[in-house]
Amino acid sequence: MKYISTRGQSPAQTFSQILLGGLAPDGGLYLPESYPQFTYADLTAMRGMSYADLAFSILSRLVDDIPAADLKAIIDKTYRADVYAYTRAGQNAADITPTVKLEDNLYLLSLSNGPTLAFKDMAMQLLGNLFEYVLTKEGKTTNILGATSGDTGSAAEYAMRGKKGIRVFMLSPHKKMSRFQTAQMFSLQDDNIYNIAVNGVFDDCQDIVKAVSNDANFKAQHKIGAVNSINWGRIIAQVVYYFKGYFAVTNNNAQKVSFAVPSGNFGNVCAGHIARMMGLPIDKLVVATNENDVLDEFFKTGVYRPRGAANTYHTTSPSMDISKASNFERFVFDLVGRDGAKTAALWSKIDSGASFDLNADGSFAKVADYGFVSGSSNHANRMQTIREAAEKYQVTIDTHTADGLKVALEHRVADVPMVVLETALAAKFEDSIVEALGHVPERPAALNGIEALPQKYTVMDVDVAAIKDFIVKNT
Ligand SMILES: *Cc1c(COP(=O)(O)O)cnc(C)c1O
């Protein structure tokens, strides 16, 4: 299995070669040269497997340069009940991603029972163990540079803290994360964790990461690695729970299932697209956005029009406050028939601050073949959806999951199960839950008082040179 760039100008690479990097040298994103296929019989054999066994069945088809026994050991170490322990009452932690039935044909898929209470732990914990394995084997070290709007940063730091040969430099928008998110990240005192609070919004942070990664000399000299959502290792880890969720709500593989995905950078739903391309019987992939609706606009009109940092709203589902969806290029590459030159031309428009329109060449008409539909949600919708979920189903959901549920309900079809991906637990966004329900959500006891712990972070401006300098001084 080799990996190719969406822009068609970089040599094909193996999994281990792309694991520690971010963008391909030509500025594109990596995808497998072809998608492995799971047949009806394969799916039958996978039905009923434990999460770890299921993950191995899928990942072993995508990773062929780590010996199978080692890959199995890494997966077994990652997907353990004691790592994904923050279950709801009545859930079995051994399921890793248990489902909650809301009503007939409507489910939540719990992806947020890991250490930082968001779905990003699902992939990041695997990445931490894969990085450690590959670096140790090759006798190397890495300096991870990432950008977070809240959940990526904490998930990365909890996955990498204390790991030998790894330092983490994490950029976050200063004062724009929830108090709980801020406390989770900034209270880590590990020597290998550096929190940088940037005077700007998330897109500024993401642009700094891109600028540093595009400086090939700096990247090589300072061994810059990536864990933001463009990292291919994260995407493949996320493919697994679409299979797990599918098996949980069906009894045979003739059935189709739809998934509703609270979306920002398009990483989570991109994994759904890949699961579908690998043969999972998915009906609709419902892309749910908040007020930052660049993706909803594309799936409704065929025009992709990133808004720029100045026009990014600060919302109550902050992990989706994104105006430019970094993984979207992966889907568009497939949509335009895997034409690297065409994808490169489209993104040269985006990189120069313009937009593109896929109507004229007929590409947009093909979007429906991939199952994508979309919708958006605003603050009032979120509040109402959180209240309705509490009243109707006795389930407390967080603001991002509420965006997903709101849009899911607009796209339900009779007899097709709709699975809403729960991307965070309500405890992470207390203020919004208090606003919606009038009381604080339940919080895992182990996390009580986290806001009062001492915090370690450095405030910096949107200044690529200064941030490079900070990395150099601390490595
Ligand atoms: C990151 C995140 C999202 C958005 O996921 P993408 O992969 O960026 O589309 C949604 N909800 C929560 C809680 C998140 O942390």
3D structure, described in words:
This protein has one domain: Rossmann fold, CATH 3.40.50.1100. Helix content is 40%, strand content 15%. It contains 18 helices and 15 strands. The protein has helices at residues 15-19, 40-46, 51-59, 68-78, 120-138, 151-160, 179-186, 202-214, 216-221, 232-249, 267-277, 294-301, 328-335, 340-351, 379-393, 399-410, 430-437, 464-473; strands at 3-5, 30-32, 99-103, 106-110, 142-147, 166-173, 193-198, 224-225, 257-262, 282-289, 303-304, 356-357, 372-376, 418-422, 458-460. The strands form four sheets. The chain has a six-stranded mixed beta sheet, sandwiched between helices. Strands 8-5-6-7-15 form a five-stranded parallel beta sheet, with helices on both faces. Strands 1-2 form a two-stranded antiparallel ribbon. Helix 10 crosses helix 11. The structure holds pyridoxal-5'-phosphate. Pyridoxal-5'-phosphate binds next to helix 11.
Strand order of the largest sheet: 3-4-14-9-10-13
Main beta sheet: strand number and arrangement? 6 strands, mixed
Q: What is the CA–CA distance across the termini?
A: 34 Å
Domain module count: 1
The fold-level CATH name is Rossmann fold
How helical, in percent, are the residues?
A: 40-55%
Broad shape: globular
Strand content: 5-15%
Which ligands are bound? pyridoxal-5'-phosphate
CATH class: Alpha Beta
Which residues form runs of ≥5 with pLDDT under 50? Answer: none
List the total number of helices. 18
The beta-strand count equals 15
Cofactor: pyridoxal 5'-phosphate
Keywords: Amino-acid biosynthesis, Lyase, Pyridoxal phosphate, Threonine biosynthesis
EC number: 4.2.3.1
Domain Threonine synthase N-terminal: 2-79
